[in-house]
Fold:
Amino acid sequence: MFSQFALHERLLKAVAELKFVEPTPVQAAAIPLALQGRDLRVTAQTGSGKTAAFVLPILNRLIGPAKVRVSIKTLILLPTRELAQQTIKEVERFAQYTFIKSGLITGGEDFKVQAAMLRKVPDILIGTPGRMIEQLNAGNLDLKEVEVLVLDEADRMLDMGFAEDVQRLVEECTNRQQTMLFSATTGGSGLREMVAKILNNPEHLQLNNVSDLNATTRQQIITADHNQHKEQIVNWLLANETYQKAIVFTNTWAMADRIYGRLVAQDYKAFVLHGEKDQKDRKLAIDRLKQGGVKILVATDVAARGLDVDGLDLVINFDMPRSGDEYVHRIGRTGRAGNDGLAISLICHGDWNLMSSVERYLKQSFERRTIKEVKGTYGGPKKVKASGKAVGVKKKKSTPKATRRKPVPRHRPSARSPTARRPTRCRWSARTAWRRSSAASRKRLLLNNAA
Ligand code: AMP
Structure:
């Protein structure tokens, strides 16, 4: 029961109205400590209720009579616009019986309108690091009186290249009294460094191991011969699986557009969501999916975070995500708040090793599934190593000069357009393509997908 927490009655009223009866494990663990003002480092599954775990204690701290606001008291940083929009909605729902005001700063929105909102000084400011920095540089943002700082999906912010921006924003909060850092995964050395630098004697709440994630989501793989074959499998799944809403993930904008076009041509009600779409289209796509106007979303990873849609029970990975963490975030769209979900990854020759490394990362073995109506010839490698990876076919040592054929020029993904250059056939694993793209193009891709 939420009444077990020392929360203000106006907050408990809002909680009851939202029909939250039992706190989720992350809420039960984090709320009491956050109410004491402790710094927290929380590793918790996406969809576990972690937003309420930090929002309720923040509101409790700010609650009071109506007064003229003179400074921003809380800053919540998140990696994507969608997640920021969702968080402000959650804050507003919990704050409905209070005088607490919140504001949103993300890319894709009018800069001057945001500046005007900042002049009115919200109690809680929520947003993505890139645009926050721009507002800061323009002299519109004063964070000196921020008392509570939240870094949500901190692992993802680092992945997206926001480390410097986050660091700068943290340094601006010179009167910070409490910091809470949330991530879906334990992250790497970058995250450990950030934790050491920013948090003060934090309580570490590890709500689940990565292998426990999404216990309610069945995870399957289906092998495929090439991308056209994957398209047939997607068609079959969308026509034959039982689902309320589905999301098809691709690694590139170009592939997302292509699949979307195919679905629309078959009269599916679908939307496409990726970093090339402007903010209006992105909002429309998510709203339509939430309202049920469309059942299918085709998306790149920009949608993997911050998308909380009721009834999203089927995730199809057309392309295997590039890392275990990315996989966790994608399948975190389904099986939310204890509901059942199904996640299916389509695996052709070039995806196999990446898939097996994700299995190892999760310490899980995905269910192998075959659909006889769309069965291809590739069924996985002939031999696998103990690691699960394919045993490579040894190259022939030498071919006599006379019979040596001219090598076919290999089509490399261009650094200028990392998204549009994927070959139709699965010639490389997504990881290889990623590795071969330049650092600059990776950063541009991530930033485009973000703020
Ligand atoms: P989050 O992980 O914060 O994105 O939350 C995932 C979903 O679970 C959101 O739709 C929340 O509104 C919902 N939720 C969070 N906590 C609870 C709770 N204690 N009871 C019921 N639903 C909840």
Notes: The pocket of adenosine monophosphate is lined by residues 20, 22-24, 27, 47-52, 308, 336-337 (CB under 6 Å). The two ends are 37 Å apart (CA to CA). Residues 411-424 have pLDDT under 50 and may be disordered. The longest strand covers residues 217-223.
